[in-house]
Amino acid sequence: MVVSDAKRYFIILTGIVQGVGFRPFVYRAANRLGLKGWVENQGSRVLIDAEGSEETIRSFTHTLQRESPENARIAELRIDPQPFLGYPDFSIRTSTAELNTTNFLPADIAVCESCMKEFNTPGDRRYHYPFISCTNCGPRYSIIGSLPYDRENTVMSAFELCGPCKAEYGSPSDRRFHAQTDCCPDCGPVLKLLDSRGVAVDSSEPAKTARELIRQGKILAVKGIGGYHLCCNAEDPAAVQRLRKLKHRSCKPLAIMARNLEAACKICKVSEREKAVLTGNRKPILLLSKRTPEYLPEDVAPRQKKLGVMLPYAPLQLLLFSDDLNFLVMTSGNISGMPICFQDDTAIKALGTVAEYFLTHNREIQIPVDDTVLKVVDEHEVLVRCGRGYAPLPIPLESGNEILALGADQKSTVCITRNNFATVSQYIGDLNEFQTYHAFERQIEHFKGLFHFCPDILAHDRNPDSLSSRYAKKQAGQKIAVQHHHAHMAGCMVENKLTRDAIGVIYDGTGLGTDGAVWGGEFLTGSLSGFTRAGHLEYVTLQGGDSAVKEPWRCAACYLFALGMDPHEFLPQVDSTSLNMAQKALHSGIKCFKSSSMGRLFDCAAALCGFQGKIIYDAQAAIELENLSQPDVSDYYQYRIEDTENSLILGYEKMLNGILRDLQNQVPKSIISSKFHNTVIEATADCTCRIRQKTGLEDVVLSGGVFENTYLLEGLISRLRDLNFKVYYNRLTPTNDGGVSFGQAAAACAILKENNNVSCDSGQSNQYE
């Protein structure tokens, strides 16, 4: 190349370009093409200074975009011409920090095939080493203390590389070239086995001993990538029952880790799409349909048609399986309702009454991350809970402000916006628990530190009594209150790139409405910045405050009282004293509230179909009602829609009377459940058609926790498509309250843009009623 023909460019790449082997990839590509210059991590982006001919640099940028590492994601590539300097070679430079550029953090990645091959090769120096990793796999987000992503900024700084590992790290031809998590048995983390008091157990092979203890029916706490799991043999009914009793988790389904795909297919029906998700590089818990007859004990997931299954994603987990141990319960290492344990001392204190042994290690966890939960709907991955492998979740969102969105009090997440991207945190939990609220505060501070983030706007729920709203009030900066159901709608619109006005069908359990009532069966029309309430489920007066949510029979009794019916006949599982007390409290107005919640209507139907007692886990009654349903039933009950001048009101009287008649005629509960679901689908589609006639809108957004119900979601998608609607639903973010923080951020951005950066609450613009 003639020097006069040489050009020099800065090539700036943003996206997930750290922690994924991007600099080694750039180094190899540049040397292959004969380019000179250097590459470095800069903040959270990668900066390349490249010299070569115009044609070669053009070829180089094409290579960067088309051949980048499997786990990389380039959001933007920018090229700026620079004066030619004449570099002698191409090198990887020491990373530099650059403030206020960060949008992306690498997620934790499941162990790759290359590492698996070494792991299973006798004689390899990393044979059965539980912390094997490379540039393409291993912990990332859970171990980062600060950026840029270099070893000294992670918990791996505690482990100095030995000679052979240092040679790999510095060799361009090695697949561990600049692998920040590189280590081996001579220089990396080590396993240890402790008893329930935290005292070391004498064992030269802790994983092998742990496997034998599991075989014997013991419960172990196993330290993973983002926190501890409680683990036992899933094929041992006694161990499963004991785990449930000690964890105070009487009936909520337990997650299963299967040894491999073949084992997973033995216990569940797995489609080709689901196989791809199970075996991919993120390995979430995937909700799958159980095979019948059930292979595992009923106590693993009682009264459920689905089972949460994942495959091993950390090398340590592979060591816990054997030919006669193919299925492990792997449930979050916490006491029900508490955050996942991730610090060793805390775990021993919290879990010592549950776990008989602890299989742990000396690699710290910087930030706790639960396992992600996914399902496949309509051949698409649908996120149920955002966690390991997916968090933190970056989503494009046009924003000129730094916004902190505080989410909902249940299934809490937080979201920040900057540089035209939103970043959603991992699942945090229920803020009503003190320790979870502390984790919420810690997560906000962690984001502020990692992203050098100082919010000038805080978005929060309109309910002033919510814990997240109270937190917002204590902070400096402007505040934007976003109505809960509008947040659901706005988030779903943005993730589907929907910019036109739309119809929002938002079904969930609760959320303060603009009229002071509890909403949850909503038909909205509008945009990201504003909405009109076009219709809703008919109000009913519920009694009992939080008890109405925890005890579905209360919902059913209140609906029956509203219909003038005697609940004693239809709720035989409830004693007369309780029903009479509820009726007196209702008549006296004690702890009563108006509700249009679809979630509570599902609770009513579940109680009428025989659900007994209190809710043990979120949406339990509705889930069990869905599990009664049969897809081959097409009948539905009659329903009434009152079409007023200002809005539609979907009545409940006719559909409930239909259920009561079927109960009196001893129709099977599975048929009643199916007909109820079908009625909600038909009535919803009917309301949506009527709104289209009034507004001309043809885009429909489905969001809210009730749409976790796959029967309902798939049925309504199909019905609306048959009616020529364009249907959108949550995929990237959870449809439940885990997606509310992103929706709040989306609405706040739009409100600020529409009002020239002057904040106003969601519900107070001209578009709102």
From TrEMBL:
Residues 8-94 form the Acylphosphatase-like domain. Pfam families: Acylphosphatase (PF00708), HypF_C (PF17788), HypF_C_2 (PF22521), Sua5_yciO_yrdC (PF01300), zf-HYPF (PF07503). It catalyses: C-terminal L-cysteinyl-[HypE protein] + carbamoyl phosphate + ATP + H2O = C-terminal S-carboxamide-L-cysteinyl-[HypE protein] + AMP + phosphate + diphosphate + H(+). Pathway: Protein modification; [NiFe] hydrogenase maturation. PROSITE patterns: ACYLPHOSPHATASE_1, ACYLPHOSPHATASE_3, YRDC. GO terms for biological process: protein maturation. GO terms for molecular function: carboxyl- or carbamoyltransferase activity; double-stranded RNA binding; ligase activity; zinc ion binding. Keywords: Ligase, Metal-binding, Transferase, Zinc, Zinc-finger. InterPro entries: Acylphosphatase-like_dom, Acylphosphatase-like_dom_sf, Acylphosphatase_CS, ATPase_NBD, Carbamoyltrans_HypF-like, Carbamoyltransferase_HypF, DHBP_synth_RibB-like_a/b_dom, HypF_C. Residues 204-389 form the YrdC-like domain. Belongs to the carbamoyltransferase HypF family. This is Carbamoyl phosphate-converting enzyme HypF. It comes from bioreactor metagenome. The lineage of its organism: unclassified sequences, metagenomes, ecological metagenomes. The gene is hypF_14.
